[in-house]
């Protein structure tokens, strides 16, 4: 989950916020209800449906949302029945347990709480007033609406989204109840309808009487029917069918909900990146689609991405524009497999090689520096093994990020430490850009920058947690260094 969040944020700005900046909150009456740790539970318990914004006063996106949220609250207070919008200042020390109870990881986060708080759902709607109102009217109404006419059907079935319709001979019985449960469970993600007459629907066998569930979708086959009414099976069928054979990633926001699904899938992820404006695009797309069909149900999901929209992903994977068209597969243990400059007729064979275990993982690395003459040596993923693990020396290694202020502060100090050991062939001071090189995380636990590790000549690996002063670092190295094995004794070992 955490991993998929990282990936997603590299691909998408998930919520594009609109609205005016920092309006004065000086309206006479506030419609948004303020809640805190002392009254949250009681207040929520009294409501069948309530929306809560977890925010922090310093957060820019929260400030942008505030006037829109207030406007929506004013409009929804006149809804029948009224819909209540509330907010919790999650930065307030006493409210922090509340925020962690609801697993709030960023601000603002909106949650929909149903039935006195017993059902919690993520808010997945827009962030401007009209959009909030429309989304919440739908969410607070019935989970599924009856389709009574062809007009009803055309108003809910369109080319951008999925619609799940239950067709029934009558609106009662166990199948109907199970369908209703399904709609309740998945209402945040899909729209639902139910009907007594399949002839009203634009696609599929019009003569069925049901019970049957028909899913309309904007990609691949235009509809799919399900007949197994076990609730869990229905949930699974809807979720699986609503992932396109090939997910499209470009700058079109209509595709983004599907990109999110792609990243949330437990499968390994195959991603083909190419220039959608180039003349080979169609050929690649159709070939890739065939391959995706061929590997359906084998633990792989497929995405095709436009280079124009993929700068974040390229940086993350350490891949370059001149390597496209390329396929990269990432498995859930974080390993990556790369086929740069792929041709259409190589795709199927390479993916098969991958599934057969015949492709070596790809490592993100900067090029090995040709000259490495500065006091602080440069380590990259491709020479890490040689310089750190196989050199048999004592090495202090800094993991840094180019943008990190503490790293910049440390740089001249590290330089001085390096200079002071310059005449000592057994000690190396080195640095690695941890954003541009894959780090063996089973050895080095790099959670922040800078992180420092010391590998002794005898192979011990110690984190350096001392003060980042020249004296302390030199002292640490002197105390912990091991004697470098003599070439003779190495011969004896062989
Ligand atoms: C909850 O408590 C806070 C702090 O005392 C107060 O500002 C707020 O109005 C209360 N909310 C309700 C709904 O009582
Ligand atoms: C309805 O769902 C329940 C629980 O998932 C299941 O046990 C039952 O068999 C389902 N009913 C039908 C008719 O499929
Ligand atoms: C994609 O192809 C078009 C047309 O050939 C070209 O104009 C554009 O610069 C290319 N974009 C990238 C990112 O290479
Ligand atoms: C290393 O990273 C991968 C992917 O990010 C993760 O699955 C794995 O558990 C990590 N290993 C350790 C020892 O943290
Ligand atoms: C770091 O420096 C502070 C103050 O100079 C000192 O109190 C502390 O013990 C030092 N820590 C280590 C690990 O040497």
UniProtKB/TrEMBL annotation:
Alphabetized InterPro entries for the sequence: PDI_thioredoxin-like_dom (IPR005788), Prot_disulphide_isomerase (IPR005792), Thioredoxin-like_sf (IPR036249), Thioredoxin_CS (IPR017937), Thioredoxin_domain (IPR013766)
Pfam families cross-referenced by the UniProt entry: Thioredoxin (PF00085), Thioredoxin_6 (PF13848)
Family: Belongs to the protein disulfide isomerase family.
Gene Ontology CC: endoplasmic reticulum lumen
Keyword Transmembrane: no
Identification of the protein by name: Protein disulfide-isomerase
PANTHER family linked to this entry: PROTEIN DISULFIDE ISOMERASE, PROTEIN DISULFIDE-ISOMERASE A3
SS bond list: 59-62, 404-407
Reactions this protein catalyses: Catalyzes the rearrangement of -S-S- bonds in proteins
Subcellular location: Endoplasmic reticulum lumen
The enzyme's E.C. designation: 5.3.4.1
CDD domains associated with the record: PDI_a_family, PDI_a_PDI_a'_C, PDI_b'_family, PDI_b_family
Keywords of this entry: Disulfide bond, Endoplasmic reticulum, Glycoprotein, Isomerase, Redox-active center, Repeat, Signal
Top-level taxonomy: Eukaryota, Viridiplantae, Streptophyta, Embryophyta, Tracheophyta
Organism listed in the record: Olea europaea subsp. europaea
Coarse class of the protein's main subcellular location: endoplasmic reticulum
Domain of life: Eukaryota
Signal peptide span: 1-22
Any Gene Ontology biological process: protein folding
Domain Thioredoxin residues, every copy: 6-191, 338-482
GO MF assignments: protein disulfide isomerase activity
């Amino acid at each position: 989950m955490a991993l998929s969040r990282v990936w997603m944020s590299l691909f998408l700005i998930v919520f594009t916020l609109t609205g005016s900046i920092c309006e004065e909150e000086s309206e006479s009456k506030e419609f948004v209800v303020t809640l805190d740790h002392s009254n949250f539970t009681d207040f929520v318990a009294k409501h069948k449906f309530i929306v809560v914004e977890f925010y922090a006063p310093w957060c820019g996106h929260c400030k942008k949302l505030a006037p829109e949220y207030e406007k929506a609250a004013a409009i929804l207070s006149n809804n029948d029945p009224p819909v209540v919008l509330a907010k919790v200042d999650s930065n307030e020390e006493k409210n922090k347990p509340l925020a962690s109870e609801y697993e709030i990881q960023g601000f603002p986060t909106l949650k929909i709480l149903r039935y006195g708080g017993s059902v919690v759902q993520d808010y997945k709607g827009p962030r401007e007033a009209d959009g909030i109102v429309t989304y919440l009217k739908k969410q607070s109404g019935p989970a599924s609406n009856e389709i009574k006419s062809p007009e009803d059907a055309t108003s809910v079935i369109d080319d951008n989204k999925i619609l799940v319709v239950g067709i029934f001979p009558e609106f009662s019985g166990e199948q109907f109840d199970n369908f209703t449960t399904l709609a309740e469970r998945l209402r945040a993600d899909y729209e639902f309808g139910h009907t007594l007459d399949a002839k009203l629907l634009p696609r599929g066998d019009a003569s069925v009487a049901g019970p049957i569930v028909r899913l309309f979708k904007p990609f691949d086959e235009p509809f799919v029917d399900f007949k197994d009414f076990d609730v869990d099976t229905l949930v699974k069928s809807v979720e699986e069918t609503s992932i396109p054979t090939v997910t499209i990633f470009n700058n079109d926001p209509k595709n983004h909900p599907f990109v999110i699904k792609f990243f949330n899938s437990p499968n390994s992820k195959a991603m083909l990146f190419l220039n959608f404006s180039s003349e080979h695009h169609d050929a690649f797309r159709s070939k890739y689609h065939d391959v995706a069909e061929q590997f359906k149900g084998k633990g792989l999901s497929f995405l095709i991405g436009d280079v124009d929209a993929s700068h974040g992903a390229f940086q993350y994977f350490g891949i370059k524009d001149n390597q496209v068209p390329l396929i990269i597969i990432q498995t859930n243990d974080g390993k990556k497999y790369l086929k740069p400059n792929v041709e259409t007729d190589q795709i199927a064979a390479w993916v098969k090689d991958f599934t057969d275990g015949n492709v070596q993982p790809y490592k993100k690395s900067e090029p090995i520096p040709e000259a490495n003459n500065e006091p602080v040596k440069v380590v990259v993923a491709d020479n890490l093994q040689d310089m750190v693990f196989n050199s048999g020396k004592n090495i202090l290694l800094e993991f840094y990020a180019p943008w990190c202020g503490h790293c910049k502060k440390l740089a001249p100090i590290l330089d001085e430490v390096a200079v002071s050991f310059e005449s000592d062939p057994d000690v190396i001071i080195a640095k690695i850009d941890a954003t541009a090189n894959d780090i063996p995380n089973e050895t080095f636990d790099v959670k922040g920058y800078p992180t420092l590790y010391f590998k002794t000549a005898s192979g011990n690996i110690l984190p350096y947690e001392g003060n980042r002063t020249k004296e302390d670092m030199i002292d640490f190295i002197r105390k912990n260094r091991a004697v470098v094995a003599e070439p003779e004794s190495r011969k004896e070992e062989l």
